[in-house]
Amino acid sequence: MLLGQKRAIAAPVVKPEGKQHSTHATSLAPCGPRGSSCLARARVGISLETHADISIGRHKPIYKNANFPTDAEGRTYHLGTKEGEVAPRILSVGSVSRAQLLSTLLDAPAPGKPLFQRTSSRGFLTITGLYEGQPVSIVSTHMGMPNMDFVVRENRAVVRGQMAIVRLGTCGAVQRPAKLGDLLIASHGSISIRRDPDYWSLLESASHHHTAGNGDSNCASCNNNSSNMNGLAVHASINTNGATAGTNGQTHGAGSNSSNCMIGRKPYTVAMRVPADAQLAALLAAEAERVVGAERVVHGLNASADSFYSSQGRTGSDFDDRNEGLLGELVAAHPDLVSLEMETFQLLDLARCSRGSIKAIGMCVALAERYSNAFLEYSKLEELEISGGTAALRALVRLPLDANLASASVATRTTDEGAGTASMEERRVQYVWE
Ligand code: R1P
Ligand code: URA
Predict the structure, then answer these.
(1) Which parts of the sequence belong to the Nucleoside phosphorylase domain (predicted)?
(2) Which residues line ligand 2 (CB under 6 A)?
(3) Nearest Cα to Cα of residue 70 among 412, 362, 340
(4) Pairing relation of β-strands 183-185 and 297-299?
(5) Containing domain of residue 258, as a range?
(6) How close is the Cα of 334 to the center of ligand 1, in Å?
(7) Which of 208, 209, 260, 432 has its CA 20 to 30 A from that of 382?
(8) CA 365 to ligand 1 centroid distance, Å
(9) Domain final residue, candidates 266, 281, 297
(10) Is 90 exceeded by the pLDDT of residue 208?
(11) Does the C-beta of 143 come closer than 6 Å to ligand 1?
(12) Lowest mean pLDDT among 23-27, 84-88, 212-216, 306-310
């Protein structure tokens, strides 16, 4: 099976504040099996030209609308893109270098046009071109659920019709059969793991009561501290949801304290699972198996953590993390858990809440085996990224999307000129792939 990597990687050209730079890319012939020869060509840099339109630096646009800031051109606040620059099919990747690598798989968005490429002042890179004749955007999402939130919401705001988003990341493999270098697909959806700072606040509060000679403290005395009372109220509702959902929505981790305030409290909270789009999951699985072979594709549940370290059960002595039992408890509660990373939950959760306008799935290259403590030889990563990226792009362009499904926000996006009154018909959008 051929992986057709088509372009040399364009190094980003950093221009002074607000300046634009644009040159044309050299088109390369398709490369050899599994993209290996393409990687070599990319490394030596056959094309020293850039096909980028890059604008890095501190811009000073005027933003209107504190609720959802966009500038006079309709560019979003963090990603800096506007309608016409982003395709309805998006490949979300963690790093800028992965976005650049995978952009070598794309064709020019239109005859004679370079790939569209824009880096926002916050460092989000968006690249738009064609894959198998269909417009596709590759977006670097950086790390963590807040960044995924920017990517999903701000892209939703500048794209019309239904969208599909595939995340291609790296992750930890939690248990066998997942092993280093495998592609782990979150077909069973994702849970999230969040460190609960209230646990440590209550611990401090309880220990204060003890040292103040209050004997066994109880929730009533802890609740004299209003911030703890707020915390208890919030987490009481989380635990109630978890109880109705069986093994979902639980709290996890080591914890012991004689104070009643600590009863039932754990240092890490785990949200109930959110589903992935079943059709997209099936397409991605089929394509991934075609690219790397079925034996290197593993399906299961993903967990997105709010940190790489404590909330993924990585231990150390510098901090009081109370996470020694975390991974074991997660696997016991979720036997289908395969991957541990930091963004997929947010993507799937927002897709679920998108009123049917976003279909999403996550797939990760297993970079770390948490059960054996092995870490992937980093030189092998690029080829795995190309394999995963090829499968993801193929799945994206094969998924049927409803172009007529209206996005409420894009039709009413305010600009200085439009002030929210322009209808979809009235505004002329320049698409980079036209
Ligand atoms: C941590 O090293 C980062 O790697 C994983 C995690 O989700 C986190 O973002 O994904 P990416 O390789 O896509 O960044
Ligand atoms: N990314 C993560 O978030 N965790 C890992 O273990 C590896 C990559």
Answers:
(1) 90-368
(2) 170-172, 308, 312, 340-342, 367-368
(3) 412
(4) parallel
(5) 197-266
(6) 22
(7) 432
(8) 10
(9) 266
(10) no
(11) yes
(12) 23-27
Question: Which domain-ending residue is among 228, 249, 266?
Answer: 266
Cα(430) to centroid(ligand 1), Å: 33
Atom 14 of ligand 1: nearest residue by CA position: 94
| 248-275 tens-digit pLDDT | 445 555 444 446 778 889 999 999 999 9
Give the residues across from 167 on adjacent strands. Answer: 92, 362
Q: Whose CA is nearest to atom 6 of ligand 2?
A: 172
Read off the amino acid at residue 53: D
pLDDT of residue 214: 52
Q: How many domains does the chain have?
A: 2
State if residue 341 touches ligand 1 by the CB under 6 angstroms criterion: yes
Is 371's C-beta closer than 6 angstroms to any atom of ligand 1?
no
Residue of 341, 370, 382 with the most ligand 1 atoms within 8 Å of its CB, for mutation: 341
Judge whether 433 lies within some domain. Answer: no
Tell me what the pLDDT averaged over the chain comes to: 80
Gap from CA of 388 to ligand 1 centroid (Å)? 14
Strand 251-252 with 374-375, pairing: unpaired
Atom of ligand 1 lying closest to residue 343 CA: 7
> Alpha-carbon distance 127 to 237, whole Å?
42
Looking at per-residue pLDDT, the higher value among 407 and 384 belongs to 384
Ligand 1 within 6 A of 170 CB? yes
Per residue in 1-18, is it b (16+ CB within 10 Å) or e — as a string?
Answer: eebbbbbbbbebbeeeee
Amino acid at 242: G
User: In 10 A of CB 96, how many CB atoms?
Assistant: 16
Q: What is the mean pLDDT of residues 92-111?
A: 98
Shared-domain flag, residues 175 and 237: no
Query: Both 209 and 183 in a single domain?
Result: no
pLDDT at 42 over 90: no
Same domain, 245 and 311: no
Confidence label for 407 from pLDDT (cuts 50, 70 and 90): low
The per-residue pLDDT for range 123-181, each reduced to its tens digit, is 999 999 999 999 999 999 999 999 999 999 999 999 999 999 999 999 999 999 999 99
Q: Does residue 428 sit within a domain?
A: no
Residue 192's pLDDT is 98
Q: Which ligand is nearest the CA of 168, by number?
A: 1
Q: What is the pTM of this model?
A: 0.81
**Could you tell me if residue 163 is inside a domain?**
yes
